[in-house]
Design brief:
Blueprint (H helix, E strand, L loop, with lengths): L1 H9 L5 H13 L8 H14 L10 E7 L14 H11 L4 H9 L2 E8 L9 E3 L17 H20 L5 E6 L3 H13 L15 H18 L6 H8 L2 H15 L4 E3 L2 H13 L8 E2 L7 H9 L15 H19 L10
Parallel strand pairs: 1-2, 1-4, 2-3, 4-5, 5-6
Helix pairs in contact: 1-10, 2-3, 3-13, 5-13, 6-9, 6-10, 7-8, 7-9, 7-11, 7-12, 9-11, 10-11, 11-12
Length: 347
Amino acid sequence: MKQLQQTIKSIQPLQQDVMKKVQGHVTQLAKPIGALGRIEELAIQIAGITGRERPTVHKPAVIVAAADHGIVTEGVSAYPQDVTKLMLQTFVQGKAAINVFSNQIGAEVYVVDVGVKGDASFEGVLQRKVKNGTANFLHEDAMTRSEAVKAIEIGIALADESINKGHELLITGEMGIGNTTASSAITAAITSTNVEDVVGRGTGLNDEQYAEKIKIIENAIVARNPNRNDGLDVLSKVGGLEIALLTGVILQGASRQIPVIVDGFISSAAALTACSLCPTVQEHLIISHQSVEQGQRAIFAHLKKKPLLSLDLRLGEGTGAALAYPLIQASTNILTEMATFSDLGLE
C-alpha cells in the first residue's frame, strides 16, 4: 500500500506554463490556426504531461496484462477460459494482432501473468501472479483489498521498469476471458450507470446469453455493494487482476510524466479506476479508440474524454492504442519538424 500511496502523492497536474509556450508555438506553425485540430491538442497535452516544450515519444512499450475471472463459470463468455493461456503463447510467439501492430510502430511487447488460472510459465511471459484468477464475484468478492493493491503495485513497478529502460511512452493491453464482465461491473459501479447501458456482447454472446450477462452483473453489484467513491473497493469486489495491474501502469505513467495510451474498454475501466484513486490522472489520459463495447461511452462521459479513433474494434491486447500511436508521434513531430511563419519570413 505504501508504494501506491507514494505514487498517488507524486502525481501532479499538467504543467500549464509549458503548455502555454507550446500553444504559442503551435499558433505560429505554417498553417491556419487550429487547422490540425486534435493533433495540435495532443501536442499541447503531451508537453503538459512531460513538462517538455519539445517532447518525444520514442521506443513505445506495450504492457499486456493477463488474468482469468471466476465469473466465467456463470456463462458470461462465449469462449472457454483456456483461451487466455493459448493467447499468452501466441503473444510470446509474436503471432497475435498486438505483435503485428507493435512491429509496425517499433514497440516492445511485455506479456505479464498477473492472475492466469493455473500454470502459464511460458518462456517470454513475465511471472507476477497474485492468484489463480479472481473469485466468482456473483457469490463473493473478486479478490481481497490487499490483493488488488498488490496487483496495482505490480503495474506501478512494471511501468517503472519500462520507463527506466528508455521507453518514452506506454501502451496498455490485456488478455482475460470474462474481462468485459468485470469492466462492465466497474463502470456501472463508479459511474452509477444502469447495467444494461454498459454491458456489451463481449466475445460474441447471443441474445439469451447477453440478457443473462446483464442479470448476473446486476445481481452481483447488489450482492457486493461496492462503494462507488472508493476505487479499491470497487476493484476488489467486482474487478480483475489485469485491470488492477493496468491501473498501476496508468498511475505510474502520470507519476513519471510519461504518456500512456489507453486501449479499449478494459483499459478504460482501469483508467476509470485510476481516476477514482487520483482524480488528477484524468487530465493525463489519452484514450486511443472507441470500442464496440457500449460501456466505454459511459466512461468517456464520466471522465469527459474523447477517443482518437473509432474503428469498431473489440479485441483488446493494446491493438487500438498501438494503431493510435502514430497520431501521438505526429503530434510531437510537428513541434520539431514543421516550419513557422517566422521561418518563412512572415510575421
